[in-house]
Amino acid sequence: MQRRTQIILGIDAGTTSVKTVAFTLDGSIVGVARSTVHITRGPRGEAEVDMERVWQATAFTVSAVVDQLGELSGDVIAIGLTGQGDGAWLVGDDGRPLRPAALWLDGRASSVVEAWSADGRGAAVAEATGSPLFPGALPVLVDALDADGSLDRDRGVHQLNCKDWLRFRLTGKRATDPSEASRTYFDTATLEYSGQLFGQVAQEEVAGWLAPVLSPSSVAGRLTRHVADVVGLSEGIPVAVGLVDTAAAGVGIGAVADGDGYAILGTTGFVGVNHPSRDHVRSDQSIVLATGRGRQVLESLAPMTGTPNLDWVRECLGRGAEDWADIERAAAGVPPGSGGVLYLPYGSPSGERAPFSDGAASAAWLGMSVTTSSAELLRSVYEGLAFALTECLDVLRLDGVLAICGGGSDSDLFCRVLADVSGRTVVRQDAPEVGARGAATLAGVAAGVFGDLTSGVAALAPTTTRFAPRAERAELYRRAFSTFIATRDALRPSWPELRVLRGLVPDLVAERPELAPSHH
Fold it and tell me: Hey, what domains does the chain have and what are their CATH numbers?
């Protein structure tokens, strides 16, 4: 009788969609399903999602992949999860959500961050976790939710991050991992929750809300009979603890050893490097995550500069109907340097957060003339994104080969430009779904399919494409990068006033064509 194929499922619950991916033990993808998740926004910067809808989206994608697998479905041997980090995902003692989840991009706690920064509580959080505060972090969201009266404690309170909530629904077990805990009250030096920090921020009761911290490559629980019946799987399949999405991507891309680094270009950017311990962290603007691999931490910078810059410029240039292949072909046809045009890729409405923090940061083109072409403008955006990531690489002193993933890395042009600008060889996996691959790798280790993480990474690794820096472009890009930094910094004092002007514009009435002066 022919042996049936063994499958590991990797679930990746992002901010706007949930994906389930089926991997064979050689890393081949044999099933993929995606479901969109709707974010609700409010007037004070609220960004929330219905936790039950996230679970329903997950169950739908798992069931859809099982249908794709057909007779292979009985051979799903492990399930791994990853997902968006931070925010407040609160459930009661009864296991039901207390309220919609406040997401990592929720801005209602901005004033709380300012207050904590002024009175020393922000410094206490940074001292314990190794990371600066931001509005989407759990400690400040607790205060913000208390202030607006939307945190009901009558049913008890438990915090479960996105992937932890989904794992709880799969298994009925509450747990988290060091990377998720690092963004709450976890001391990334001692690798345990900081008892002192709860008192310093006057949130002693929150200590009882938090899940136990387990190894990412351990079994957190097993698929319950009820869920197994719903999604068409067998009861008792082991479900791994997992990691937050940025850390899981490192596993999926194979960057697990000390000194390994990688970059992600998606809706936002990300540059990270593994250190033997927190003692080696290089920037006070970094996000520091314990990886669960001994004392190792992942130090990362997460700039807001990402692919929305390309989408926006494409539309503004009237090329929204063109295929991306045609857009990239036009940009690639322009010589390096974009005809002297520089693009500052700070297009996010919330400004920039790494490697510097400036809520007023704004996008701009510099060096244009009436001879500048739309193709030069397009290419300058690719180069501007590469300049921004290179600055992060330099701050983290991440040298050597650079692994890259994320939607932006699908662009050969961007990978070539990043290699040329940074002077580093860029390596891109030829298969998608890096986060889900990382989750599946950890699940394989947890289930005993792989002896350890290194062998699991090797087993599931796809082929890669390498982009080496071209020496003949090094001097041009060295000068362009230097000018990028200098002009950006020269403009920074004007950014706040530009933001003020942006806010004044809607108060004025646009010119009507019939009121324009006539010319004779």
Answer: 7-245 (3.30.420.40)
